[in-house]
Amino acid sequence: MVKAMQSEMPKKYWKNMPEAAHIPQMIADAPARARAMAEAAPSFPPQRLAQVQAQLAAHQSAWEGPKDALAKDIAACTRCPLHCNATQAVPGEGPMDAELMIVGEQPGDQEDLIGRPFVGPAGQLFDQIAGRAGLQRDKAFVTNAVKHFKFTPRGKRRLHQRPNASEIQHCRWWLDAEIAQVKPKLILGMGATAAEGLTGRRDAITARRGTVEQTPSGTPVLLTLHPSYLLRLPDPQAKADATAQFQDDLTAAVRMLA
Q1: Which candidate, 207, 179, 182, places its Cα nearest to that of 192?
Q2: Which string of DSSP letters, residue by residue, matches 150-199?
Q3: What domains lie within the chain, and their CATH numbers?
Q4: CB under 8 Å, gap of 24 or more: what pairs does 65-74 form?
C-alpha cells in the first residue's frame, strides 16, 4: 500500500522524520513478511475442518456425481430434521433414462419401512388407475418431492404430516439431482407438495390439475391430484369424479409421450 501511504505522507516530508529511513527496507521486506503471516495463520483442527467441509458439501448449489451414487447419497441425507425420526430415506426408482418421471409428496408409513416409493395404499391405487390409463409404471422413474416420512406418533400408529416449505426446499436439492440425472421429457406432479417442489407453488392444485407448467430448468410438468387425496374423499360421487379426473390426467401423460 505504498501509494496510499504516500498520499497521506508525501515522500518530500520523509527527510524530516528519522524513522522514515526504514521505509525503503520495510517496503522491500513486505512480500516476505506477508507470506510468513499467511503460513502462520491459525487453521481448523482436523476434526473441525472435516465437519466444515461436510457441511459445505451438503449445501452445494447442485449435486454432482455418478448415477449409481445418487440413491446412496440420498440415503445418507441429513439436510433437514426429518431424518431424525424416519426409518430411512426413500430415493426414487426406475430407469435412469425414463421419458416420464412421476413425483409424489413423501414416503408413507409402508414406504418408510420398506424403503421403496409408492408401495402403500396410495401407490396401489395409483397402479390400478395407471393400468386403466395405459401408463406403465415400470417404464417411469418414480420418486417423491420429500425423501423422508414426516409423521406424528399416535399410539402404535404414525399419522402422516404434510411437509412444510422449508423441508420441501431442503429436499428440492435431491429432486433437482434426480431430474438432472434422468432428464425426463415429462414430469407428472401429483399433489400440492409435488407441485411446490417442482414449480415453487402449492396453491390451487385442484384448479391447476390437468395443466402443464414447467420446472425452473424448463422440464414440462403435468399437474394432477395425489392418489391419497382420492382415498380420503368420503363422498362416493366426489371420489368417482376425482378418480375419473386423475385417470384422464394419466391418459394425457401417456398421450403426450406417444
Answers
A1: 207
A2: -EEEETTEEEE----HHHHHHHHHHHHHHHHHH--SEEEEESHHHHHHHH
A3: 88-257 (3.40.470.10)
A4: 67/96, 67/181, 70/177, 70/178, 70/181, 74/147, 74/174
**Cα-based distances in Å from 29 to 1, 67, 136, 188:** 13, 53, 74, 66
Establish how many alpha carbons lie within 13 A of residue 171's alpha carbon, considering only the half-sphere containing its beta carbon: 35
Residue 227 CA: distances (Å) to CA of 187, 230, 245: 16, 5, 11
Residue that is written with C-alpha cell 401423460 in the block: 253
CA nearest 178: which of 84, 57, 90?
A: 90
What are the cell numbers at 159?
399419522
* Coil/strand/helix, residue 218: coil
Q: Give the three-state DSSP class for 144.
A: strand
Please state the separation of Cα 80 from the chain's center in Å: 11
* DSSP annotation string for 98-123: -SEEEEES---HHHHHH--SS-SHHH
pLDDT digits (tens, 9 = 90+) for 113-148: 999 999 999 999 999 999 999 999 999 999 999 999
Pairing of strands 151-154, 157-160: antiparallel
CA dihedral for 229, 231, 234, 240, sign (positive or negative): positive
End-to-end Cα distance, the chain: 68
- Quote the pTM value: 0.75
C-beta separation of 226 from 191 below 8 A? yes
Cell of 77: 441425507
Q: How would residue 155 be classed by pLDDT, with cut points 50, 70 and 90? A: confident
